[in-house]
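Go through the following before class.
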Amino acid sequence: MVLMEGITHFEKLNKILISEIKNIQCFNLATDISSLNKTIDKFNFEKIYDQVLDFHEFVSDNFDFDKIYKENGKYNILLNERFKTKESMCIKWEKNLKRKIPLNKVCNDTFALRVVVPFNRNTITEIVDKQFSNSSVKIINYYWKTKSIDDGYRGIHVYLKNNPRCFPVEIQYWNREDAILNFYTHEVIYKRVVNGEISSFIEEVNEYSLALRRWIEQIPEKPNKLDKSFIDFWYEQFTE
């Protein structure tokens, strides 16, 4: 019963997110930015980031954060938002400049939401696929198809783009198992990678991260008589 109530609330939350994201994607980029499909070498970074800041301001004014956070804790759902910093965006820009990646792919997470739920990957996948099955949504499922170089990252990314004149919005979906590993790799590994501190042994670091993923997936299920699993206990230490 508790599980079903949690799933029902998760579905309700997704409906609210879809509605709120449609509201903020009424934002329109400056008229001289003719298309987000052009490659980033055609644009000036500073000018694009000015547009990102305008979008952030629009989100802050028009996104009902109180509405989407209501009652999530009751159902053990963690939701938080992230506005991409200039430093982070600059790193991504420089990384993709020579590859001539389109602007809409480089700026697909200028505003992002993360949802962590106490469900298994099959449940998350089923619900996300059902609720986001339309042409204005791109879903990348890192449960079924890993990154080209597998570093153990798992989760589902949904990119919503209802307006071709607005930046896409990203939603990341993780379960608690994902969160434990992803929190660690982001804080301890990723931040040092993007700063160039450990690029010389990145292969070794990726292998370590993947080994952690394989280890955490082998943690046994708790006996029914225990109230809390090892994963739940460990996850709560991260989020207290």
About this structure: The first helix runs from residue 2 to 24. The chain has a mean pLDDT of 89. The beta strands are 78-83, 111-117, 137-141, 156-160, 169-175. Residues 2-175 form a domain with the Beta Polymerase; domain 2 fold (CATH 3.30.460).
